[in-house]
Amino acid sequence: MTRTRKHKGVTRRELLKAAGAAALGGVLLSTAPGRRALAHEEEGAADLEIHMGEMYFQLHKVNGEEVQAEKNAPITIRAGQRHLIRFENVGVVPHEVHFGRVPDLKARLYKENLFGLGDGTSPTLGFLGLHLLPGESATLHVWIPESKRGEWEIGCFMPGHYEAGQRAPFIVE
């Protein structure tokens, strides 16, 4: 016969089950779709907010103010400053964002990565990309050096997306 100790009307086994359920609930809530760690706790703190949808990127807000930008229109950012860039997947399928130039559709990345070495020989060094499921968002805290001024691009390398036009000029001035 197994004896269980009661603590204020609750058995030790019931207490452990409740603690386990609470811990599991916390883990599930922290990984729920749409929840991402932010560089700052304020959702509205982003310098740029960009929506990703079926075959487009669209600038949605600049410094908290809504803008009326065309889909896949150029997006401009200043070099030599820290920026918060918030991406939100408003589409119904997963999307990615990569920063670079000279697309390699076979490797599904840019040969020259904006956040890589910049020598064109090591496309895999640096930040490769951000993958978001439908309804998810993420905020990137970036600093782009003066040496990276020029015309770059953001693109989605999910199979068929880049080819269908999901890319936009990303101008670093």
CATH class of the largest domain: Mainly Beta
Helix content: 10-25%
Q: How many domains, in number, for the residues? A: 2
Question: Terminal Cα separation, in Å?
Answer: 77 Å
Averaged pLDDT:
80
State Rg.
22 Å
Count of DSSP strands = 13
CATH architecture of the largest domain: Sandwich
Secondary structure tally, helices: 1
CATH fold category name of the largest domain = Immunoglobulin-like
Structural class: mainly beta
| Poorly predicted runs of 5 or more residues | 1-7, 15-42
Q: What pattern of helices and strands is seen along the backbone?
A: EEHEEEEEEEEEEE
Main sheet summary: 6 strands, mixed
The shape is globular
Provide keyphrases for this structure:
single chain; 173 residues; mainly beta; Immunoglobulin-like; 2 domains; six-stranded mixed β-sheet; five-stranded mixed β-sheet; 11% helix; globular; disordered N terminus
Architecture blueprint of SSEs:
Layout: E1 6-7, E2 10-11, H1 12-30, E3 48-53, E4 56-62, E5 65-66, E6 75-77, E7 82-89, E8 95-104, E9 109-113, E10 130-132, E11 137-143, E12 150-155, E13 167-172
Parallel strand pairs: 3-7, 6-13
Antiparallel strand pairs: 1-2, 3-4, 4-5, 7-11, 8-9, 8-10, 8-12, 12-13
In a nutshell, what does this entry contain?
The chain is mainly beta and 173 residues long. It folds into 2 domains: 32 residues, no CATH class; 130 residues, Cupredoxins -  blue copper proteins (Immunoglobulin-like, Sandwich), CATH 2.60.40. It has 1 helix and 13 strands; from the N terminus they run ββαβββββββββββ.
General description of the model:
The protein is mainly beta. It folds into two domains: 1-32, no CATH class; 43-172, Cupredoxins -  blue copper proteins (Immunoglobulin-like, Sandwich). The chain is 11% helix and 39% strand. It has one helix at residues 12-30; strands at 6-7, 10-11, 48-53, 56-62, 65-66, 75-77, 82-89, 95-104, 109-113, 130-132, 137-143, 150-155, 167-172. Strands 6, 8, 9, 10, 12 and 13 form a six-stranded mixed β-sheet that branches. The chain has a five-stranded mixed β-sheet with strand order 5-4-3-7-11, with no helix packed on it. A two-stranded antiparallel sheet has the order 1-2. A hairpin with a 2-residue loop joins strand 4 (56-62) and strand 5 (65-66). The radius of gyration is 22 Å and the shape is globular.
